[in-house]
Amino acid sequence: MLTAASAVAGLILPPGGMALAQAASTASPATQGGASGNVGYYRFRVGDIAATVLSDGLIGGPPQIYASTAPEAELEEVLRQAFLPTDHLALNLNTLLIETNGRRILLEAGAGQTMGPQGGRLFDNLAAIGLRPEDIDVVVVSHTHPDHVGNLRTADGGRAFPRATVFAPRADWDFFIRSDPDLSYMPVPEDFRRHFATAIRQSLEPVMGEVELYEAGTEIVPGLTTLPALGHTPGMANFLVHSGNDQLLLTADLAYHPIVNIDHAWLPGPDRDKETALASRRRIFDMAAADRLPVLGFHFPFPGLGYMLKTDSGYAWVPANWQF
Ligand SMILES: [Zn+2]
After folding, report:
1. Per the database record, which ranges form the Metallo-beta-lactamase domain (predicted)?
2. Exposure winner among 62, 228, 283, 302, fewest CB in 10 A?
């Protein structure tokens, strides 16, 4: 059974919330590993489009949060068989940079340190490929949860990507920003919900005046189409990057971790409307499997690329081979 204390500890929330989390961000997480650290970027192509997964690091929490319908003993056994800890599920933050028609477009902004001290590596990984935040022309977020918008704000409250036009789904903006969101559906303690809502507001505050709100289903720029994937949040989109005959599907938070949401079809606790989210998941996973699409999972083990296989009982995640 998930207790309030274990949830807070597992989500690595500092007791002081945002203030402490931001103070911690003065350290540079990507350099903390020193010479023993690994790279956090991965380059590939989608037709004529150059694509680079840029890791923002990790978040995570008690596995039951992400697999809310799993019987406790079965979940533990599945995690043990996957050689994963049974008390904490680590989730990656795989943002994707695409470069097309002279523009640099970042898909998802990442968490920064809004959800714990292991996020916030994006800027070091951008620097590792020779880019600065001002080189980003467009940022598109699939939904406005803190782990997707956290890096939009600098530690002193400014715009982290000073030249970028930021696109966010309109229905999420209406729910999280224009109203006082009721987050009682989230299987986390009340103080976590408050922190979560505040982190969304604070992260988006610097772009409040000029954000571009989109309806899922529209094309943002040639080669980047959004697909409705509602349920996790009121407006969540998926992304289809396409060039010539090549495509890449980004599934945002349809699944958190392949082991618990694909290989086993347990429902993510943070899905606001679980039936709608389930229908979105099936529709998009079916498309990915039928069309043999390369898929990028935002929270999947880095770099998060692979394929969706249809099985007799559901789906299986097949990681892609590493490319040099
Ligand atoms: Zn997420």
Report:
1. 92-299
2. 283
pTM of the predicted model, to two decimals?
0.90
The domain 41-319 is classified under which CATH number: 1.10.3720.10, 3.50.50.60, 3.40.50.1370, 3.60.15.10? 3.60.15.10
Rg of the Cα atoms in the chain: 18
**Gap from CA of 108 to ligand 1 centroid (Å):** 9
d(CA 20, CA 198): 14
On the question of pLDDT at 36 being above 90, the answer is no
Going from the Cα of 246 to the center of ligand 1, the distance in angstroms, rounded, reads 26
The Å distance, Cα 148 to ligand 1 centre, comes to: 6
Ligand 1 centroid to 146 CA: how many Å?
Answer: 8
pLDDT bracket for residue 37 (50, 70, 90) = confident
- In the sheet that holds 41-46, the strands lie side by side as 41-46, 49-61, 89-100, 103-107, 138-140, 165-169, 212-214
Give the per-residue pLDDT at 35.
56
Distance 187 CA to ligand 1 centre (A): 15
How many A from CA of 250 to the centre of ligand 1?
12
Which H/E stretch holds residue 221?
A: strand 219-221
Question: Ligand 1 centroid to 232 CA: how many Å?
Answer: 9
- Give residues with Cβ within 8 angstroms of 139, minimum separation 6: 105, 106, 109, 152, 161, 164, 165, 166, 167
Interval between CA 193 and ligand 1 midpoint (Å): 15
Q: What is the mean pLDDT of residues 35-63?
A: 94
Determine which helix (DSSP H) or strand (DSSP E) holds 44, and give its type and residue range. Answer: strand 41-46
pLDDT in tens, 83-113: 999 999 999 999 999 999 999 999 999 999 9
pLDDT value for 288: 98
Confidence at residue 3, expressed as pLDDT on a 0 to 100 scale? 41
Q: How far is the CA of 94 from the centre of ligand 1 (A)?
A: 10
Separation of CA 130 and ligand 1 centre (Å): 26
